[in-house]
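Page header: ASSEMBLY MODEL / two components / 594 residues total.
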Amino acid sequence: MKFIDPHIHVTSRTTDDYEAMAAAGVAAIIEPAFWLGQPRTNIGSFQDYFSSLVGFEKFRAAQFGIRHYCTIGLNSKEANNEALAEQVMELMPLFLAKENVVAVGEIGFDDMTAAEEKYLRIQLEMAKEVNLPILIHTPHRNKKQGTYRSMDIIEEHEIPPHMVVIDHNNEETCEEVLRRGYWTAFTIYPKTKMGNERMVEVVKKYGAERIIIDSSADWGVSDPLAVPKTGNLMLERGIPQEHVELTCYKNALAAYGQSGQFEESDWLSPEPIDQRSLFEGNSVLRGGQTPRVDKPEDDRIIQ
Amino acid sequence: MSYTPIQLLENWILRQASDDGQAWLDTQREAVTTGEPKSLYMAFGFTPRKIGKADLQLTERDINDAAEARPGWQPQTWTIDQAARVLLLMSLPSEDDAAWFATIEKLFQTAEVREQICLYQALQLLPHQELFDDRLAEGIRTNIQTVFCAIAHCNPLPMELMQEPAWNQMVLKALFIGAALDPIEGLDQRVNPDLARMLIDFAHERRAAKRPIPVELWRVAAPFADEIALEDMKALYATGETLEKSAIALALVSTALDEADAILQTDPEIAKRAESGSITWREIAQQAYPS
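Prediction written out in full:
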């Protein structure tokens, strides 16, 4: 079975993770622009980070047979540095139209400050202008209020719910998010957001329509195999395969496919290698390494 | 009659783009003429989605028109979005050269691979080209072969703008990363003793390590062949594959050295083909780097 992990911060992960993900059936991933664990102090850091999301990380994932997409946005925490946030708003138009950008995100609330709301609104308008889906990060603290407030603001901007993924839901928030018509995403992230046994129960209770499962794996203790592990657990616990396919693959495809930049054919029938668009010579392999050795050579000889 | 590059690009796009794509491009070009960088940045990014990414369909006539409009311009490898992006760049007001340069540099700094390829090829048609010699020298430091080739191949700017050290690095690096030399414009005109010295050393080092030597190297090294180069060429002419022998013969024929004649005589059949013009550097490059 094939999986999509529509929310994972692979820039923090190793090549071992990529190998394990590919082996577990992860065909495509989306990497939302996020916080690096410490605040960025100047616009150049954002510029280079965004460049890596649309450039080198996309290439690196491809080396392991995984299609990489991303979302571009100013995360909620860093919206509180308004001087820097203003510069990010000027930078974003340079990145929203890049080829693997499938949404504006992840944006939303952290502390629920006025500055966070201001830049959320600006970015919602940007997404409308370029007709891209939106990925909403809901806060860890005061989650219920933060989630509802985010939806209220989206509705004030007259953005239809089918264009919006609300992420990091839990048992407390999902009913209202589903009721209002949004894509309702869950992060399987150990000890904090959602565990996969709880996830099985959510799908049993609410079904599979508009529910999306992701890992959000990043630089913290987290699991890049969260989506395949959850999919397999759902099957084991008697959830029908079609529901597993919807929550671990097809719903993400439908939601982010609205960008026009996220198509199944990209990974099911990839184009032949186009040497005009490869990062040749900039491989993740280091001098002399070969990606796969079918017949080991005499290792005493160094060519 | 002759055309300007803008007229040619417009004609090619008109021929190939959908009506919607064409209308979108017209609107964006109009917006870009206000000089507001955001209009250019957004339009530049969205061009492939609106215009498509097909190869430009060009005739022999188009290619001749291009060379007439801008000597050295070879749009054979261009795509339609590339052509449209260049039209957008050409719509940006350029009277204030500092502001204009800052806007273009911002695009370079944030470009993904296809955009970099487009920008490096676009420069040959843009104003203020003299501002970009550092950008070209920086560009060839890339590890991305496709970007390197957008600068080095089918592009007259390196020949026109690059200082000699950067030019020499570009030629040497092409050999290192497996890019052909033949598509480098001005290759034979800008041969110089320093470059030949580097190539002769490189060849000698490769031969000592029993590694293959890129056959096109001899085209650039031969005009300054010294004792070491002649010794290497002699050895390879005796033992090499046909392609290597042909390249060495052609290189030796281009020199007027007595030693060259002596080496050529050791395989008179290939020497004859090289002298008669039935071997060319273009064919050698095509065989060495089959596409």
